[in-house]
Amino acid sequence: MWLLQLPSNLSTPFLNGGNSNGLGLNRLSKPTSSLPVAQTHSLPLPSIKAMKTMEGKVVCSTNDKTVAVEVVRLAPHSKYKKRIRMKKKYQAHDPENVFQVGDIVQLRKIRPISKNKTFLAVPAPDRNSRNRNSPGDLGIPLQSQQQEEQSQP
């Protein structure tokens, strides 16, 4: 133990942070500043809703209150970087046994119902009735439409 104790009169630049006057900061010491600490506001953080819903096709509906849904997604190949179709089957909860093989359903993430069922199958909206963002669909009438409305009173 006596080897680990240093004499009190020994002064090295390594002990006091490089300053020979003894006022230097140690690398392990906490920095002190006279600047006020910023107050953090306790705002609720928004929840992240990434990959909470998926869309797929029902491939099996023989089980009671359960459907097997195949979800197809495009992913780049690890070596060739070509986009390939990746298929995965999920077990989804269908409480009323509504869906048949071939139906397009939307999967919503819910609490686990069993070991493999963590999704709820809901009817997917029609692909034709989805709101497509087109340049003329901003809700603002075009100049030609405004002139027609003004001339029709």
TrEMBL record:
<keyword id="KW-0809">Transit peptide</keyword>
<dbReference type="Pfam" id="PF00366">
    <property type="entry name" value="Ribosomal_S17"/>
</dbReference>
<dbReference type="GO" id="GO:1990904">
    <property type="term" value="C:ribonucleoprotein complex"/>
</dbReference>
<dbReference type="GO" id="GO:0003735">
    <property type="term" value="F:structural constituent of ribosome"/>
</dbReference>
<dbReference type="GO" id="GO:0005840">
    <property type="term" value="C:ribosome"/>
</dbReference>
<keyword id="KW-0689">Ribosomal protein</keyword>
<comment type="similarity">
    <text>Belongs to the universal ribosomal protein uS17 family.</text>
</comment>
<feature type="compositionally biased region" description="Low complexity">
    <location>
        <begin position="143"/>
        <end position="153"/>
    </location>
</feature>
<dbReference type="InterPro" id="IPR000266">
    <property type="entry name" value="Ribosomal_uS17"/>
</dbReference>
<dbReference type="GO" id="GO:0006412">
    <property type="term" value="P:translation"/>
</dbReference>
<keyword id="KW-0687">Ribonucleoprotein</keyword>
<dbReference type="InterPro" id="IPR012340">
    <property type="entry name" value="NA-bd_OB-fold"/>
</dbReference>
<protein>
    <recommendedName>
        <fullName>30S ribosomal protein S17, chloroplastic</fullName>
    </recommendedName>
</protein>
<feature type="region of interest" description="Disordered">
    <location>
        <begin position="118"/>
        <end position="153"/>
    </location>
</feature>
<dbReference type="InterPro" id="IPR019979">
    <property type="entry name" value="Ribosomal_uS17_CS"/>
</dbReference>
